[in-house]
Every structure is written in C-alpha cells, then in structure tokens.
Design a protein that fits this description.
Layout (H helix, E strand, L loop, with lengths): L1 H21 L3 H21 L3 H26 L11 H24 L14 H9 L3 H22 L10
Helix pairs in contact: 1-2, 2-3, 3-6
Length: 168
C-alpha cells in the first residue's frame, strides 16, 4: 500500500511540477505549484516526517505561493504576443538538457548504494524549535524581511503614475 501511495505522490509531484514550467498563465502555474507541494508533503508524511510536511504546506503553499499570486495580480501581467524561439535558443536548450542527462547518468553509475539504511532517531518538536530559535533565527528573520521588502517594492512599482497637468 505504501508503494502505491509513494508512486501516486511522486507522479503528482512530477506532473504538476512539469505543468508549472510549461504553463503560460502565471496564476495557473502557481496553482499547479501548490498541488506539487502537496505531493511533496505527502512524500514527507510517508517518510514519517509529518511536521516537515506541515511546515512545507504552511510556509511554501500558504505564504510563498500566496505572496507570488499577490505579486502577479498586482503587476497585472497579461500574456501578450510571445516571440518564437530562435534556433540558437533551441540548440542551447537541447545541449543543456543532454548535458544534464549525461551528468545524472554518470552520477548514477558511479554511486554506491548501501545495503540497508540505519534508522535514525525520530526528531522531536523540541529539537526543531531549539534549532529554529537559536541556530537559524537570523536567516529566518532575514528571509522574512526580504519577502516584506519584495512585497512593498511590488506595491510601489505597480502604482499607476498619472501625469499632472499644469492648470493656468
């Protein structure tokens, strides 16, 4: 049963991630990103990391994607006329994809897989909280501040400037 769930969540994650990349509408792409993150959260639950799944859904699906949608809607991006790809762009993309496949295959063939993994001790909420509020406090605060600055920047940039006419 767990194999079926794993394959279901993995397929859901990969399919929706591909739809995020190929979708032309930014709002639909953000919705597919949320579904892809739900699939990753399902994989975390299968690994008995329910807290990590909850944090992933809360932070990424709840905050970052919502902020992305807010920014997209403020900028009012309407899909206009798309320029066709140039031949050099297509060749470079195919070359990059081929190099990626060759690199992954070479790493796969060189890798030594262990026979059995040693089970690790289950993390506790206290350990997460201690790490979050001691070791990683500054990075969390900096990321929050950067998201706030990005949101304020989008608000300022999205305001329509009206030309003032000089009245006699």
């Amino acid at each position: 049963m767990s194999d079926l769930l794993f394959y279901t969540f993995a397929f859901l994650t990969l399919a929706c991630a591909a739809l995020v990349v190929v979708n032309k509408n930014a709002v639909n792409a953000a919705m597919f990103l949320i579904v892809s993150l739900v699939g990753v959260a399902g994989l975390f639950v299968l690994l008995d990391a329910a807290l990590l799944a909850f944090v992933l859904l809360l932070v990424y699906a709840g905050a970052v994607v919502a902020l992305f949608l807010f920014i997209v809607m403020l900028l009012d991006t309407t899909p206009g006329s798309l320029k066709p790809f140039q031949a050099s762009t297509i060749v470079a993309s195919l070359l990059g994809g081929a190099l990626l496949v060759v690199g992954v295959l070479s790493l796969y063939h060189r890798a030594e897989f262990p026979a059995a993994a040693v089970p690790a001790a289950a993390p506790t909420m206290k350990a997460y909280a201690e790490q979050l509020f001691t070791t990683y406090l500054l990075p969390v605060q900096v990321v929050g501040f950067m998201l706030l600055i990005a949101m304020l920047g989008v608000i300022v940039l999205s305001k329509k400037l009206e030309a003032k006419e000089d009245a006699p």
